[in-house]
Amino acid sequence: MTGASGRWKTAMKSIVATVFSTLLGSVALTASAASVEGARDIHSYQQAAGDSVSRMPATLVDWQALDGQSLTVWTANDKPWLVKVDSSCAGLTSADSVALTSRDGEVAVGTDYVELGSTHCKIASIQPIDYSKVVARHAMMARHMYHKPAMADRTTS
């Protein structure tokens, strides 16, 4: 019975290793897809960003980290802004929440910060985003990704 028991243990170890390997591969694919999505978003927002401004409203409604140094912030008037910090902001891409410092109801370049708990990242630039350009770019990319060219008729007459 020892031989059968040993084979059973070996088989179970093999099954566990296969399941673990499959799950680990799924996590890697998910992380890779998220990385591609983030790269697509940052490029879209950068392309749609206007000239730098010195201030923006401080009424933070929503936000999305684009990378370790930039995020998109939506203010109360449903206006998106591209905000960049002066150096990599540790934890920005994995943060559950952010806050912005402000004075007199406005966030200012060079004096205000993106706050992640005890981490403070000085704001280096603020740019308004033309969100219609972001939507148009995403729609174009979606058409490009899912468009299948029509088969040419190769029959001869």
In terms of topology, how is this protein built?
Layout: H1 2-48, E1 55-57, E2 60-65, E3 70-75, E4 80-85, E5 99-100, E6 106-108, E7 113-116, E8 119-128, H2 131-146
Antiparallel strand pairs: 1-6, 2-3, 3-4, 4-8, 5-7, 7-8
Helix pairs in contact: 1-2
Brief digest:
This protein is an alpha+beta fold. It is 40% helix and 25% strand. It has a domain at 41-144.
Q: Mind explaining what this structure looks like?
A:
The protein has a domain at 41-144. It is of the alpha+beta class and 157 residues long. A hairpin with a 4-residue loop joins strand 2 and strand 3. Residues 14-38 have low confidence and may be disordered. The chain is built from 2 helices and 8 strands. The longest helix has 47 residues, at 2-48.
Structural class: alpha+beta
What is the first-to-last residue Cα distance?
74 Å
Helix content: 40-55%
Low-confidence stretches: 14-38
Share in β-strands: 25-35%
Features:
globular; two-stranded antiparallel ribbon; 157 residues; single chain; alpha+beta; six-stranded antiparallel beta sheet
